[in-house]
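step=predict obj=Solute carrier family 22 member 7 n=526
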Amino acid sequence: MKFEDLLLETGGFGRFQILILAMLCLPRINLPMHFLLHNFLAATPSHHCAIPHQEAFVNLTMEEVLLISIPRKPDGTFSSCEMFSQPQFHLLLNSSLQSENKSLIQHCQHGWVYDHSQFTSTISTQWDLVCDQRGLNQATATFFFIGVTMGAVVFGYLSDRFGRKTMLLLSLVCSAVFGMLSAASVSYTMLAITRTLTGVALSGLSLIVLPLGMEWVDVQHRTFTGILSSIFWSVGNMLLALAAYLVREWHWLLVAVTGPCLLSIVCLWWVPESARWLVAKGKVKQAHRHLLRCARMNGRKNFAAELFLSFHLSQALTRMAKDKKMEGSYSYISLFRTPVLRKISLCSGVVWFGVAFSYYGMSMNLTGFGLSIYLSQFVFGVIEIPAKMVMYVLVNRVGRRQSQAWTLILAGLCIGANVVIPKPLTSLRSVVAVMGKGFSEAAFTTVFLYTSELYPTILRQNGMGYTSFVARLGGALAPLVFLLDEVWRSLPEVTYCAVAVCSGAVAFLLPETLNVCLPEGIEDIE
């Protein structure tokens, strides 16, 4: 007997499952508020070198002070990282002249002056992470995703060993603690460490929430569950734009996006452990109790039927548990021991890297489209919802494999298209960027659903942990690729495009899982 048969005996998809999904929505909403926080936490407003003895130029306007103190770039704007070693008063007579003597130009010597019209403070303005220190600013996101990468390995293993709910609670508690410590950071080093640890903790949420929900639903509602969970990610995207718009100071913004973790902890006490995992671990009595609770809430209130169900479940669960115990214990190495599972693991790793690399590459580039950073973030969140709705139909009509491959390839092509579209055509660039973001989110939505169906129950969290590890490597590298614009301005976009298209092609090598029962053991895969 398969576990899906037992779920049908307990009422299939009913109030019990709906309540579980509702309880798991809040942690899911909280994830993008941290994962994409770098857009606002480390935003760099326009700035120029601080000008010494500026009070000596009381008869000059601010524009004139800048003219004699700051050299212009080829596009006519004032340099952000250079200044004249001494005032160039002759430029007041003819501003089109520029000093030919390069020895008069030097790097900023007295700090920087920032435009605070959009942000009260960010970590860039707090610790002057600009110009030569620009790499440290981008590295903040990389440190966070390195933490998420490490957490994927840790929580993937621990949730398969100690249970989904226990590790999810631990993840939430640690996320709240390290998130608040990040907000209290008094140095860049402290912020880098606490954000890395926050990434480790949040990885548990990213890894466990979807599989925990899916392990309580039947085959017919797996797609619905995956899409619903993904929609809450988009809601979090939009709420991040609202929170950042209302809270312009980076310390309090961190507090605002961390606070929901505390509410999630309260909500999670009601959520039961995965009965599917309990069966796989031989914990029949606990699984039996949760399934009976599921049956009662789903309307199976007839005492005689429940009595029969109790006996029926005990016998079936005991047989299933014995089968699982005979299969032994498993680790990440088990993902590569058998031929079919090895192919799945290698190909899904490439796909996850491409999905995350292109998604975060687009999500962390909110400028150049003619919209404010807040509106861009909100629009990018809004476009994800219809993309998910379309995917709900596509993955059930054309299948998971085709949907995964083509959404990723089209996302890459949209990124590439904006390389050749001229910068002045901001409206066209915005439309293409929004389309690309929609395809990218559709690919991310599909990959979560698809991967959770590819791996057997006894290895599902290990599989999700491994693929999440590879994805977070992509997420960690994505912000650093922006630094390649010093080599060639369009090199970051070309890189994102190439990786997305190539990884999308690899998705064609994966097996189809549409309308297939979730595999319980390795023999179901092989």
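step=describe
Residues 421 and 428 are 8 Å apart (CA to CA).
step=end
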